[in-house]
């Protein structure tokens, strides 16, 4: 990237306003920093009795300092028998309602296992579900509006503010990722102590590749039901990812410590390939049977589906140079360590 262009943005930002108060304006520094500090963590203030599959917690991606894209299945539900699962292909006529805003708190993935885990949390002002999010969760996106900015937050890079252009880019990256392994998902892992070091919590990058959907077939349409009976789907075409409303992709990883399907729902998938870098989707598992896959596979909701929610507020869209800026962050740090014996009480 031309350093004069980058310097221009820095000068413009310094003159314009303080960065967290410069609403809607673009500054390259907003996207710099540890990748996990652009990932939000959803905390639940209560357990819903009528939501038996309520996640323990979820992740999401910061589009702006007070706007996060999260899975719809993490913030909305209806009667369990009406919602999709690996053994129930729900109807689009079954609608879902979002949880009360007061039932959520939002922090940063990067603060987990540190003292800031409990102190750096903010309340939710509003939840907006994707217009096509229903009990099928085939389109699994929602927008969470935060009441204030999280300390230490950065924004997640979206490589284009145009939905059609982004779809072409993600389709291209999906093909090359299987060859070059240019995509990743982050997760926290616990390192073992050695004679010279204490055990630590580490943010690890798990490489992922986009695979043919057949690799995820049994995740969404397993052979048997939980009680051992043969499962016969009503819509076999949906087992093959046909005639569904959302853009879903199948991912696989070579890491064996944990099933990709069991990663925290909402975990962003990032890719760096050629001139592309940034988010391509989020992991979802509310409607899958994670124990049914013979390989380490998982389902990703394409970020293209999120663009109707995210695009209007993407600061990148107001920059005439956004298509050239992605290469400016090649050296961004991605790994963060915490000592296990740190007092988090």
UniProtKB/TrEMBL annotation:
Keyword Cell cycle appears in the UniProt entry: no
Annotated InterPro entries: Peptidase_S1_PA (IPR009003), Peptidase_S1_PA_chymotrypsin (IPR043504)
Signal sequence, start to end: 1-17
Superkingdom of this protein's organism: Eukaryota
Gene3D superfamilies per UniProt: Trypsin-like serine proteases (2.40.10.10)
UniProt KW keywords: Signal
SUPFAM superfamilies according to UniProt: Trypsin-like serine proteases
UniProt protein name: Peptidase S1 domain-containing protein
Lineage of the organism: Eukaryota, Metazoa, Ecdysozoa, Arthropoda, Hexapoda
């Amino acid at each position: 990237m031309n350093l004069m262009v980058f310097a221009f943005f820095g000068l413009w930002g310094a003159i314009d306003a303080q960065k967290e108060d410069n609403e809607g304006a673009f500054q390259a520094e907003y996207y710099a920093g540890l990748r996990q500090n652009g990932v939000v963590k959803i905390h639940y203030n209560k357990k819903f009795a009528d939501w038996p599959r309520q996640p323990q917690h979820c992740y999401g991606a910061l589009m702006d300092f007070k706007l996060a894209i999260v899975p719809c299945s993490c913030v909305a539900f209806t009667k369990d028998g009406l919602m999709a699962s690996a053994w129930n292909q729900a109807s689009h006529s079954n609608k879902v309602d979002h949880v009360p805003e007061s039932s959520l708190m939002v922090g940063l993935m990067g603060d987990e296992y540190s003292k800031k885990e409990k102190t750096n949390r903010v309340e939710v002002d509003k939840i907006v579900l994707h217009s096509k999010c229903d009990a099928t969760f085939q389109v699994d996106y929602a927008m969470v509006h935060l009441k204030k900015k999280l300390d230490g937050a950065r924004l997640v890079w979206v490589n284009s503010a145009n939905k059609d252009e982004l779809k072409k880019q993600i389709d291209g990256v999906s093909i090359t990722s299987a060859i070059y392994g240019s995509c990743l998902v982050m997760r926290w892992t616990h390192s073992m102590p050695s004679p010279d070091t204490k055990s630590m919590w580490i943010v690890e990058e798990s490489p992922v590749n986009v695979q043919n959907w057949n690799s995820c077939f049994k995740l969404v349409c397993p052979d048997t039901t939980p009680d051992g009976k043969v499962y016969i789907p009503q819509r076999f075409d949906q087992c093959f990812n046909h005639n569904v409303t959302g853009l879903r992709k199948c991912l696989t990883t070579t890491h064996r410590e944990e099933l990709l399907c069991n990663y925290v729902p909402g975990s962003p998938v990032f890719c760096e390939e050629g001139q592309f870098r940034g988010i391509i989707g989020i992991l979802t598992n509310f409607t899958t049977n994670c124990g049914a896959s013979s390989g380490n596979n998982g389902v990703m909701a394409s970020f293209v589906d999120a663009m109707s929610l995210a695009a209007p507020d993407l600061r990148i869209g107001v920059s005439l140079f956004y298509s050239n800026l992605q290469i400016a962050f090649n050296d961004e740090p991605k790994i963060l360590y915490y000592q296990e014996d740190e007092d988090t009480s």
